Automatic annotation (TrEMBL):
Organism: Brassica cretica
Protein name: (S)-ureidoglycine aminohydrolase cupin domain-containing protein
InterPro entries attached to this UniProt entry: RmlC-like_jellyroll, RmlC_Cupin_sf, UGlyAH_Cupin_dom
Pfam short name (any one): Cupin_3
Domain (S)-ureidoglycine aminohydrolase cupin as annotated: residue spans: 61-134
Taxon lineage: Eukaryota, Viridiplantae, Streptophyta, Embryophyta, Tracheophyta
Length: 137
């Protein structure tokens, strides 16, 4: 069977669409548009780094994230130590952060809301240029 290009959203729960096929024609879309589907926010903590993927806009607005300073960085690799807790929201980019003493990295990317703890030393490996809002506490 080939790839599915379009789906039929007949379910009342837009996060669990129901695929239906009408005759031998390709899958078709009914109900809410695909643009109405938004991924749910998922928060995790790994190696001391808190990451929330797809935070709701209401949270970003409440925290004033869009008024925080911005920082940009081209693809590169460099060491970094957090003298204060940093909270940031990645607008663009992809980074793998390796906390000192760990061979394991933590991947962060555009759309992630991230908190780095005070005192953490790590290496940033930026694979896709980063543009982020940030705030130190």
């Amino acid at each position: 069977m080939g790839c599915i290009d379009l789906i039929n959203l007949t379910s009342t729960n837009i996060y669990r669409p129901v695929l239906t096929r009408t005759s031998n024609k390709p899958y078709i879309t009914r109900g809410p548009s695909m643009a109405a589907i938004r991924a749910e926010s998922v928060a995790t903590e790994k190696l001391g780094i808190f990451i929330e993927k797809n935070p709701p806009e209401s949270k970003l607005t409440q925290l004033g994230v869009r008024s925080w300073p911005k920082w940009c960085c081209p693809p590169s690799k460099f060491p970094w130590t957090y003298d204060a807790k940093e909270t940031c929201f990645l607008l663009e980019g992809k980074v793998k952060v390796y906390p000192d003493g760990s061979d394991e990295g933590v991947e962060i990317e555009a759309g992630d809301f991230v908190v780095f703890p005070k005192g953490m030393s790590c290496t940033w490996d930026v694979s896709v240029a980063v543009d982020k809002h940030y705030q130190f506490e």
